[in-house]
């Protein structure tokens, strides 16, 4: 079955991973701006990173007929440095017209600190002023519910924010309704230790249904699997869910969310139907 991975950090993956994803029928990915495995010290480092996300990585993905999209921000793990964060936010508009940019993200909270909240709100201000989609990072483990509640409250307190243009990622059983009940999209991350297993994600789907929900691997520097979505597909098949239900979660929903992006160019009908990417097209 064709699938989309709407949250995966491909700069941390080998080219072999693209090949395996292509063999598993991955049609497209989106890569949120993230931590580099260490704290970057200058805005120039982020400028080069944004060039990599918008210029180089789409070409590497296209070698395997996978469309590559991205999101731009300074991640919450580095938001404690407020002055650096503001330098990075100031240069994001330079990249927003790049054809593979979907919006601002993944912004959010890591340790639920005052500085993180300040930088989250400044990213949010940029996103609403430029009418960009927003991708949200929610904290890990014991900080997740508190952080998700803080994020939802900040989003709701800004009347300019349209919930239908926001995806709250890394939801789990105790946070998924915070996203859905407030009109946001949500993402379940299939990550082996700090987030959901495929079985837990299947449980969540059976609990809340298939509207405004998607799945991703968040493959990054840590122990993670870029083929986690095919594992979820197999788990849902094993439980007897129809192909139409599975396709909605792993393909139709992320595509529907992405179609709201300012730079969106619709895939040719025959390409979308086949779940393939045209390497030479605008991506």
UniProtKB/TrEMBL annotation:
One MF annotation (Gene Ontology) recorded for this entry: metal ion binding
Annotated keywords: Hydrolase, Metal-binding
Transferase is among the record's keywords: no
Organism expressing this protein natively: Fimbriiglobus ruber
Alphabetized PANTHER family for the sequence: HYDROLASE TATD
Gene3D superfamilies for this protein: Metal-dependent hydrolases
Family label: Belongs to the metallo-dependent hydrolases superfamily.
Pfam families associated with the record: TatD_DNase
UniProt protein name: Metal-dependent hydrolase
